[in-house]
Structures are given as C-alpha cells and as structure tokens.
Design a protein that fits this description.
Blueprint: H1 4-17, H2 21-29, H3 41-51
Helix pairs in contact: 1-2
Length: about 70
C-alpha cells in the first residue's frame, strides 16, 4: 500500500540501486504482481467499509487479500 513510509523506502531503494522510484516499484515491488501499481489507502478503506456494511453480515472467519494479484502469480 502506498504510504509515506513506503514512499521513503522507494526513494532509499532507488538511491541504493541507481534506479528511479518508478523502476523500483515496477521492477522490484511489483515484479510478480498481476496489477502493476501499488494499492491506495482509499481502496483499503473501501474494502473495510464493505466489511462493516450490512451486505457483509454473513462474512466471517475469512481473510480478504488486497495484493493486486501478487499471491496468485
């Protein structure tokens, strides 16, 4: 998820490896991900909102993976 901490880590990794931050994201972080972008906070908030809604009252004892397809590649 894109956060200020991740943004700083991207900048640090870019400097260490001589890459742009975009290259760190695409070539390192998202190399195995089906969706080639970081998840945003509002997407996580939307998933949480759904789980707290009446439409999700029958959902229990499961996990919701928000990883852009990384776990299936």
């Amino acid at each position: 998820m894109r956060t200020p901490l991740v943004e700083r880590q991207l900048a640090d990794q870019a400097e260490v490896h001589g890459l742009s931050t975009d290259q760190v994201v695409s070539d390192v972080l998202l190399a195995r991900s089906a969706v080639k972008r970081l998840i945003e906070r509002d997407e996580v908030a939307g998933a949480v909102g759904f789980l707290c809604s009446p439409e999700a009252t029958s959902i229990s004892g499961t996990e919701l993976t928000l990883d852009g397809g990384w776990s299936v590649s």
